[in-house]
Amino acid sequence: MNMSTPMVESLHSLVSGQSLSSVQRSQLATQMLSDPDWAVAFGVTPETVEDVIDVRSQLLPNLYPKVQQYWQDCQIQTPCIDLLWQFWLPLAQRLIQTHQQLNRPLIQGILGMQGAGKSTLTAMLCLILQQLGYTSLTLSIDDLYKTYADRQQLQQQDPRLIWRGPPGTHDIDIGIEILDRLRFAQAVDIPRFDKSAHNGQGDRSGFESAQPADIVLFEGWFTGLFPLPDSAFEDPPAPINTPEDLTFAQEMNQALNDYSPLWERLDSLIVLQLADYQLSKRWRINAERVAIATGKTGMDKTEVEQFVDYFWKALHPKLFIPALIQKPQAVDLVIEINAEHLPRKIYSGITT
């Protein structure tokens, strides 16, 4: 949801210590109510919009310098003040409200394909939550990878598991133990994974002690996905092209059953949905090109396509993500990401 130049200037005026004029408040209120789904997701109604503007106006001047510095450190050129006002701050406030309603630590799941912005979003939320006086902790499904030795044994049993990542390559029991301890506000040891070990195959590098947190952000590329019925695979999309591909997809689908106890620990689930799932592959190709151009190691276009196709054969986003979003009470918030890596739509999940 784009903001006009005058409204962005109004936000900069707030940051510099000026008060909003009645005209500026009216413009902001109109803009905040212009997308009904976005407004409802963040509790903005014609009755509450003035109060929401007051609260955000009080918080923005203290938050913006820290957020802007992080944005600059990430070497992102686009302005961030409108994102802070419209997206990051209200999302952080939503998490705080849910945490307060639970009266215990919130376990917030975040699902997003590669390139959807999971890492950026969780980092920004942690930064804002800290400024608002709340502790947070980020946990990735990647932290739960099985050890190199265990995955080597797994690959001997199933040679198709050539890369870590699909269902079956994670230590689910450790994940359950971690989330249970965090739910009850207990300190916990979190496994850390070194992706560079064993020539890039990766291995667990040890454990890191973590203190209890008010809000736990648990992100991953298939966090919260549930198995689909067999009928979903009657006409599968590419790259599920061969009978062998189809068998692999169906078996990975069944393997999701093992993750259900882990997903049951989630209090809420946010889905970062790409406007076009093919964007994930394009972004990865561009990222690898940049890495190679700057003297780092990287994959060429063919290698990226093979890599991404492998994961799409396992859990195809065209099959699984729409089905998840359409399942009642499965998703609390959907954030649609456009080709510029920005939120285009935000709406609440289906409740009934």
From TrEMBL:
<dbReference type="InterPro" id="IPR027417">
    <property type="entry name" value="P-loop_NTPase"/>
</dbReference>
<protein>
    <submittedName>
        <fullName>Uridine kinase</fullName>
        <ecNumber>2.7.1.48</ecNumber>
    </submittedName>
</protein>
<keyword id="KW-0418">Kinase</keyword>
<keyword id="KW-0808">Transferase</keyword>
<dbReference type="GO" id="GO:0004849">
    <property type="term" value="F:uridine kinase activity"/>
</dbReference>
